[in-house]
Amino acid sequence: MKNSIAVLTGAGVSAESGLGTYRDNGGLWDNYDPMEVASIEGWMRNPELVLNFYNMQRSKLKDVKPNAAHRAIASLQDKYDVSVITQNVDNLHERAGSSKVIHLHGEVTKVRPEHGRYDRDYSESEVFDIGYDQVCLGDKAPNGSQLRPHIVFFGEAVPKIERAIEIVSKADMVLIVGTSLQVYPAASLYRYAGNDTPIFIIDPAELKLSDRRIVHIRENATSGMQKIVEMLEKEENFTTFAPAK
Ligand code: APR
């Protein structure tokens, strides 16, 4: 039975691909008000502004590639049962070769009807992959309603959080890469890891976390993930990484 690794990622894992983060200096939320372009109220108030914001994100994604951190995460699949649980709406984990990816906050390459069905068993009926195309006001779904980004807006539920909690609670190791851990419920996911489950956080910023299970690798995603790969090549027995009692 392969050891399982849950990899929780945020915008920082895609930073070295050239995609901006949200809350760093010059980040997306320095230039846009998330309540205008990424909330359900913003959508109701001005859907065209929201469509244009995600059209821009989508066309940016066309021109960037996965970086060495995405590839290192995918390479762990050779020896471990790896589940990527990302807050990112980009497709860089998949393009790097990760096969089990849960997008907690949706996917920018997909759209769905504004008024449609959403099966509680996490299958996504009526979701359409439009790649890097644009979607405009007046573009309708087969059911006649306006097409909207398949994104979890601020103010909306996070349908995949229970599945994510289940995966983290059973993981033999948790890696957290490039997230400021400020948006819930994603930010609390690591807390569901077992008492003796090693947790590594890769982030160049100072983090104020006092969980005895956490080891902070204060580096960028690419160099930090290289360290994790080398560490696992040297020592496959995860109990050696267990936190001190
Ligand atoms: N490598 C690793 N981490 C990095 C790098 C890098 N090269 N550059 C920046 N970071 C770190 C930052 O220090 C920060 O901790 O990535 C984190 C980015 O934090 P945010 O910009 O807040 O992004 P994220 O945590 O993913 O935001 C969560 O907020 O607005 C919502 O839905 C949006 O999914 C997003 C959620």
Describe the structure concisely for a colleague.
The chain is α/β, with parallel strands linked by helices and 245 residues long.
Strand content: 15-25%
Radius of gyration equals 18 Å
Numbering strands along the chain, what is their spatial order in the largest sheet? 3-2-1-7-8-9
Low-confidence stretches: none
Give your account of this protein's structure.
The chain has 245 residues and is an alpha/beta fold. 29% of the residues lie in helices and 18% in strands. α6 (68-75) packs parallel to α9. The protein is elongated. The chain binds adenosine-5-diphosphoribose. Adenosine-5-diphosphoribose (APR) is lined by residues 10-12, 15-16, 21-24, 27, 34, 87, 105, 178-180, 182-183, 202-205, 220-221.
Keywords for this structure?
245 residues; six-stranded parallel sheet; 9 helices; 9 strands; binds adenosine-5-diphosphoribose
Helices and strands in order, then pairings?
Elements: E1 4-9, H1 12-15, H2 28-31, H3 34-37, H4 40-45, H5 47-62, H6 68-75, E2 81-86, H7 92-96, E3 101-103, E4 106-113, E5 128-129, E6 147-151, H8 161-170, E7 173-177, E8 199-202, E9 214-217, H9 221-234
Parallel strand pairs: 1-2, 1-7, 2-3, 7-8, 8-9
Antiparallel strand pairs: 4-5, 4-6
Bound molecules: adenosine-5-diphosphoribose.
